[in-house]
Specification:
alpha/beta, 18% strand
């Protein structure tokens, strides 16, 4: 999972993105998810990179089960239709409140994309409308604040958006987390009412180009089907 790329943030330009793509491809993931915030607005020291340029680089990502995206709030603030078109025209499906049945070998699952909690319709019922009885369901979205609304039949939800707060201060915590829930969904694996969520701290930075004790992360998750 490559969350919050914010291409154009300091040290996160086109060259950095190309190197990141090469590294990800070398890890040979089965499935690659891109949960939004591909662009930046007003990051100190940054330089705007168009969604078309970012998508042109990201289209070289390779995974046998595919590469899929949803949009983040920064993508909506720029132009959601433009960003979605940039990716879809370069072969990266954008699953905004819709799903795709994907398979490789004996692994088959329903991938559900849910649009951004702040700016998108985040229509869970629409996103889940094609889910069939007995299917394993993996959901991905930008903002983890939607997690309490996710139905129990979704095996795992993955998200980004928070950047893990970008800054963690020992004994104090994360001073700023862009979430209605504070640090509850700030970073990592969460389990609530039997439902699983993983929040990636992401790759880029927003507002200020600062990270402290919250390093950027390319998230690699190993998911297996539980045995009753």
């Amino acid at each position: 999972m490559l969350a919050d790329l914010h291409v154009g943030a300091p040290y996160k330009g086109r060259k950095s993105l190309r190197e990141l793509v090469i590294a990800v491809n070398k890890s040979k993931p089965n499935l690659i998810l891109l949960p939004g915030d591909f662009v930046i607005q007003g990051v100190v020291g940054g330089s705007f990179v168009t969604p078309e340029d970012a998508a042109q680089i990201l289209k070289t990502l390779r995974a046998p089960m595919g590469v899929y995206a949803v949009l983040g709030n920064h993508d909506w603030w720029l132009d959601a239709a433009r960003v979605a078109s940039a990716f879809s025209q370069r072969g990266i499906p954008v699953l905004e409140d819709r799903s795709r049945l994907i398979a490789e070998g004996n692994c088959k699952l329903r991938l559900v994309g849910i649009s951004d909690f702040w700016e998108g319709p985040h229509d869970i019922a629409k996103a889940m409308s094609d889910v069939q009885e007995g299917e394993s369901v993996l959901a991905f979205t930008h903002n983890p604040d939607i997690f309490p609304l996710i139905p129990a039949r979704v095996a795992l939800t993955v998200a980004g958006h928070t950047h893990g707060g970008q800054v963690y201060l020992p004994l104090i915590g994360r001073p700023i987390v862009p979430s209605h829930y504070g640090e509850r969904f700030a970073i990592g694996h969460k389990v609530e009412e039997g439902k699983h969520l993983y929040v990636s701290p992401g790759v880029g930075t927003s507002i200020l180009p600062v990270r402290f004790l919250v390093p950027p992360e390319v998230t690699i998750l190993t998911v297996s089907k539980g045995v009753p």
